[in-house]
Amino acid sequence: MGELVAFIAKSLVDHPEQVEVSETYGQQSIIVELRVAPEDMGKVIGKQGRIAKAIRTVVRAVAIKENKKVIVEIID
Description:
76 residues, alpha+beta, GMP Synthetase, Chain A, domain 3, three-stranded mixed sheet, 3 helices, 42% helix, KhpA, cell wall biogenesis/degradation, KH_sf_prok-type, chaperone
């Protein structure tokens, strides 16, 4: 899941080398934390959070196929 989030984020930002993704595994879910450069934060979130919502939707669709629950957090 982290690789997918990293790929999408690197495609959107101006500084792809500063994209960091970490995964935390829990009992029933995976938490994916995404960190980007401060000036790229708006590109990842989008107007009214539309891009962030789209990223979460794509990751959730992949997770359903694997019977997992994934939470994507965007951290500054």
